[in-house]
Amino acid sequence: MQIKELAQQVGVSAKTIRYYESVGLMPPPKRSENNYRQYDDADAERLRFITSARSLGLAIKDIAEIMAARDDGIAPCNRVLDVLAQQLADIDRRIADLLELRDTLREIQAKGITLPKDDVQGDHCVCYLVKTYRHTDAVVIEQEIRPA
Asked: How far apart (Å, rounded) are the C-alpha atoms in residues 138 and 104?
């Protein structure tokens, strides 16, 4: 089959296939007499694995190691399990970071609602909280205490 057929069969673009060839995930294809790339069912299966692994967030480097092991006749299952464990740990870390960010945004929003909304200079309103948060990791506005 030609690249267009492979692309349709697997659901990726021809450009993606050429990219995977250029980075070594797909082997150089056989060529027909007119120099068109020629692929077989084994290429389609390999490409399915690669595209599925990418959709699961696996890095090209990791997929390359898995494919190299398979090409060398070594079952890559343990490597795949290691990569999946790393991916899960990374996702858990990113979720924790996002939950922390959500809490911070809620805190800024809750404090900002109580502050003036007509502060053009942005020194005593929600804008100040946003502006200073990065440097202080705190959601605080120093309030002047005025004598009564």
From this structure: 9
